């Protein structure tokens, strides 16, 4: 069923899902930073250097797909310029049709198109009271997730101050395409790995600062009307995107299909400095090994070294693009390893955010 057909189906009332199960496990690693939900600056932004030589591409700064988006102390930027909209952003993600952000002041979830049309599509995503900045990778909660190749986003609703359903929303229309309740206890955080036109992958757990590997990953095939179910049982999962699973086992990380067939594998150290939901590119074609500055093509194991490393943070900002922070901000191609000329970007260690893709 394609997305348009599903929208028609959802409008008739058949888009509601129900789940009954409990997942446990920890979903984060390498404790760093505070969260992007901070409402006041912790320190003054300090521009990073852009003097490193050897970068080849031009720097895209126009509002639109493929430009480098980020926030610092709640102020949203595209390239070296602030967004046209005068908002403070708590967290944000990128969809095929535009940017979706949580307004830090109003708690509204807003879609802004590439033509600057705006639409309120929801309210503040739920996060449990125990979800403190400590134990969050890069200061990001991963409580809302999008996909640069799809017109869908997903989050957990907040209902009367309590955790509500997981929803899949088409941001360009604001339509709720599907929803499902969560049977796990309310104190357990829900951390998203990925969303696309067919499925949502997420984990629940009680220790947000724990290991990045999780043995209880939920698969919700929302477009086909299925209930969420536990995926690969008995394996430690680092990330899921598309039909690619990154699985930790012994001294290796394997890139596998849902049925367990192995595509390729790399040394376990290729998972150092990664975090749940941040290793695989949207769609699962690539894996980033931060400790080595390498991108791995998951289907073949082919490695590509990036021109630009990072001192601060990194994040997948497209199916083939990585944004690297420090020194400067640079967007790198996972296919060629080439990186844009770094730009001067205001960077506050404890209050910086990249899109949650």
Mind sketching the topology for me?
Blueprint: H1 3-14, E1 46-47, E2 69-72, E3 75-78, E4 81-82, E5 89-95, E6 98-103, E7 108-113, E8 118-123, E9 144-146, E10 153-159, E11 162-170, E12 175-180, E13 190-195, E14 200-204, E15 217-220, E16 229-230, E17 236-241, E18 244-249, E19 252-256, E20 262-267, E21 286-289, E22 294-297, E23 303-305, E24 313-316, E25 321-325, E26 329-333, E27 346-347, E28 352-353
Antiparallel strand pairs: 1-27, 2-3, 2-28, 3-4, 5-6, 6-7, 7-8, 9-10, 10-11, 11-12, 13-14, 14-15, 15-16, 17-18, 18-19, 19-20, 21-22, 22-23, 24-25, 25-26
Characterise this structure.
This protein has a single domain (3-353), classed as Methylamine Dehydrogenase, Chain H (7 Propeller). With 357 residues, the chain is mainly beta. The chain has one helix at 3-14; strands at residues 46-47, 69-72, 75-78, 81-82, 89-95, 98-103, 108-113, 118-123, 144-146, 153-159, 162-170, 175-180, 190-195, 200-204, 217-220, 229-230, 236-241, 244-249, 252-256, 262-267, 286-289, 294-297, 303-305, 313-316, 321-325, 329-333, 346-347, 352-353. The chain has 1 helix and 28 strands. Strands 4-3-2-28 form a 4-stranded antiparallel β-sheet, with no helix packed on it.
Evaluate the radius of gyration. Answer: 19 Å
How do the strands line up in the largest sheet?
Answer: 4-3-2-28
Global mean pLDDT: 78
Strand segment tally: 28
Quick recap of the structure?
Residues 41-60 are annotated as: Disordered. This protein is mostly beta strands.
List keywords for this structure.
disordered N terminus; globular; 4-stranded antiparallel β-sheet; Methylamine Dehydrogenase, Chain H; 28 strands; Quinoprotein_ADH-like_sf; 37% strand; mainly beta; 357 residues
